[in-house]
Amino acid sequence: MRATLETPYADARADGLSFALGLPPLDALAVLPVERAGLTVEFRLLGASHQVIAGPLSETVACLPDATEPLPGRASTTVPGWTYDFAATTAAHSDATAFARAVEAVCARLADRGDALTGAFPGSPHAVTALTLEETAREEAGLGWRTWHAYPQTREIVMTRSRLLTSSPGPKAGDSNPSAYGRRMS
Fold it and tell me: Model's pTM, two decimal places?
């Protein structure tokens, strides 16, 4: 799903992003619920980036008011019945053409997917945040998702990859409380 957003983005640089687990649902500009692996996964576009709520976990990558540490390259935690892994990288492009091509490639790849949410912010056609589900390995029970945060001012794209895998025995999908197991990681 592609959403044309009317609210300017609140995060203007990759180094302004931080990471938090367990936050309650934040005000969203667009929301896409998707069913996968017995869970409802909710992709949420925020003016300050994204939030994903999946079963017992909420992941927020955004410019958070009280966060002072940068986005971590890696993080992991466990919640009852689940293991969560997160990774983030930033790609800096040397010129506007290379940056535009990279953003357009992500948008084209996700354009017809029912499990993807792409938001275009006003001011630049390349001010984009995108989220999509990702297949996990056949031997893994759970789900994964990827996100892209494009910053035209600095020609940076922040890419994240997250996995939420079940441990035996797994909780029921209805047993989720995203804020019960939360902690903020900056």
Answer: 0.83
